[in-house]
Design a protein that fits this description.
The chain is of the alpha+beta class and about 325 residues long. The protein folds into 2 domains: about 160 residues, Ribosomal Protein S5, domain 2; about 140 residues, Alpha-Beta Plaits. The strands form 2 sheets. Strands 1, 2, 3, 4, 5, 6, 7 and 12 form an 8-stranded mixed beta sheet that branches. Strands 9-10-8-11 form a 4-stranded antiparallel beta sheet. The longest helix has 20 residues. The termini are close together. The protein binds ligand 2P0. The site of ligand 2P0 has 14 residues, from helix 5.
């Protein structure tokens, strides 16, 4: 018997960077994201004699997945599993493959092992693997915040159907993982205290921009959150420079488009890709402009997607 689940990647409009001390993989700052329909992880689990993992068709060992399975087994009855997972986009390159990956894995295991978890419990389960995965349990606009640090939907995908163009500037895995980068920023950046102190107020303002569907406010606040996070990364020691030259050029291109009246803004995570968020009528113009930027290898287009779900059991 096998069970398959699918989950979509998400990108943060308000960024999480840094963890609380103690167990549970709780973020130090709240975040808000959009779930992307075109970027998916599909994961199949099957009973086995011992755990085995395949990613994109290759047998692998993954310390983070092994550690997370061990944590889940402390709370739930989960037998040995053969896990096979496939991403339809580059892995570990700043496109949130761990978000869709752990959301799909938690959803598949919940159904396969008959855990009967609520969406909130499944989100907390996914968070143990990767905090951003807590958001991919839900579709549309999603918040991850205190006190329980479970993802919660703010708006359904069709309530504000924005579009996203991802400009891929490099598809190899990043040099410093998000987890290691966050630890470094927390330990060494002189701005870390200011980052966490402003987070609750930033969260409320950005959440209001989403519920009011105020694109101009969202653009300004999301861009500010992204650049503030990268200031934190740049001020870490040794510095975390996830950007490539083309990353900056894409952001400049998007700011020019916005100044010309196009409703678009850019955001960048722990990798060199640029995600342009725009209104649907502008998506072709945005994609064409990004394809013209030297160093952009390819682009992906997406709308907003739904939450993680079982597809086959
Ligand atoms: C985010 N990122 O809010 C931020 C912005 C990247 C930059 O969450 O350590 O894979 O597994 O909890 O969730 C990526 O970090 O990190 C991330 P862990 P995760 O989307």
């Amino acid at each position: 018997m096998q069970t398959t689940a699918i989950a979509h990647s998400n990108i943060a409009l308000l960024k999480y960077w840094g963890k609380q001390d103690g167990p549970g993989n709780r973020p130090a700052t709240p975040s808000l994201s959009i779930t992307l329909d075109a970027l998916t992880t599909t994961t199949t689990v099957e009973d086995a004699h011992a755990d085995a993992l395949r990613l994109n068709g290759c047998a692998i060992r993954d310390a983070k997945i092994e550690r997370t399975l061990a944590e889940w087994r402390r709370d739930c009855a989960i037998g040995p599993l053969a896990i096979s997972s496939r991403n339809n986009f580059p892995t570990a390159a700043g496109l949130a493959s761990s978000a869709s990956g752990f959301a799909a894995l938690a959803t598949a295991i919940d159904a396969h092992c008959g855990l009967r978890l609520s969406a909130g419990e499944r989100s907390a389960m996914a968070r143990r693997g990767s905090a951003s995965a807590a958001r991919s349990i839900h579709g549309g606009f999603v918040a991850l915040a205190a006190p329980n640090w479970r993802g919660a939907q703010v708006l359904a995908p069709d309530a504000w159907p924005l579009a996203v163009v991802v400009a891929i500037t490099a598809s190899e895995p990043k040099a410093v993982s998000s987890t290691a980068g966050m630890e470094r920023s927390k330990a060494t950046s002189p701005y870390f205290g200011a980052w966490t102190e402003a987070a609750s107020a930033d969260f409320e303002i950005l959440k209001a921009a989403i519920t009011h569907r105020d694109f101009d406010a969202l653009a300004e606040l999301a861009e500010a959150s992204c650049l503030k996070m990268h200031a934190l990364m740049l001020s870490s020691r040794p510095p975390l420079i996830y950007w490539h030259g083309a990353t900056v050029e894409c952001l400049r291109t998007l700011r020019e488009l916005r100044a010309g009246g196009c409703r678009v803004f850019g955001t960048v995570d722990a990798g060199p890709q640029v995600k342009a968020v725009c209104e649907r009528q502008d998506v072709e113009q945005v994609e064409a402009a990004l394809q013209d930027v030297p160093g952009v290898e390819s682009t992906l287009r997406s709308g907003l997607g739904g939450g993680a779900r079982v597809t086959d059991s």
